[in-house]
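Hi P.,

Sorry for the delay on this. The queue was packed all week, but I finally got your sequence through. Input first:
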Amino acid sequence: MNLSLTEYKLRFLESLSDKTRLRIVEALKEKEKTVSQLVQELGATQSNISGHLRLLKISGIIKSRQEGKYVYYSLRSEAIKEFLLKLEEMMILLRNEAYEGA
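Then the structure:
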């Protein structure tokens, strides 16, 4: 399946539009983590986290590697981390502008 750039952007943004998935991606910004670590950090069930990880992996946002009996998840690219940081900067700027204009 060959997606247009617009379709690819839409899938990427849809993947981040869920609160749990966004929290997972944010948690992976600094270092790779196992499902168990994410469950503990986010306070969700293992099946819930695993389902979201599967979708994030299919969408190309995260990758995984196996080491012994553990699977470690991380962001697929440094560009995703940079995108999240720029998005955060933009949200702070827009929020501040909204308060100033109110």
